[in-house]
Amino acid sequence: MEVLAGIRPIHQLARRLDPRCLAALQHRAALIRREITRTGNPALARLHRNSTVRSVRVCEVRDGVYEGSAVVVDDVRARAVAVRLERSKQVWRVTELVIG
């Protein structure tokens, strides 16, 4: 959420996101920045700001693979977040990320 809000550089997450998830998150953040610049909409500028996690659910799919979901509330709205984490070579990496 901090990347989408523009308050965290995406490179800080690069080691934990697989390349496809990283590219998708980077693309979405760029679209948000472009739309804020284009419209000047103050609601868009508050989008993803002050995010708070309201609930989390996690389940083990198999050894070394977990899937989770969360409800995240920011200044503008509530949204669902789904994530899949997989361990390879003792490193946990996000292999799926969906932000509603």
Distance between the termini: 11 Å
Main sheet strand line-up: 1-2-3-4
The chain-level mean pLDDT equals 92
Rg, Cα atoms, Å: 15 Å
How many E strands?
Answer: 4
Count of helical segments?
Answer: 3
The sequence of SSEs as H and E is HHHEEEE
Shape: globular
Percentage of residues in DSSP E strands: 35-45%
Oligomer: single chain
Biggest sheet character: 4 strands, antiparallel
**Helical/strand content category:** alpha+beta
List low-pLDDT spans.
none
Q: Work out the helicity level.
A: 25-40%
List keywords for this structure.
single chain; 100 residues; alpha+beta; four-stranded antiparallel sheet; 3 helices; 4 strands; 30% helix; globular
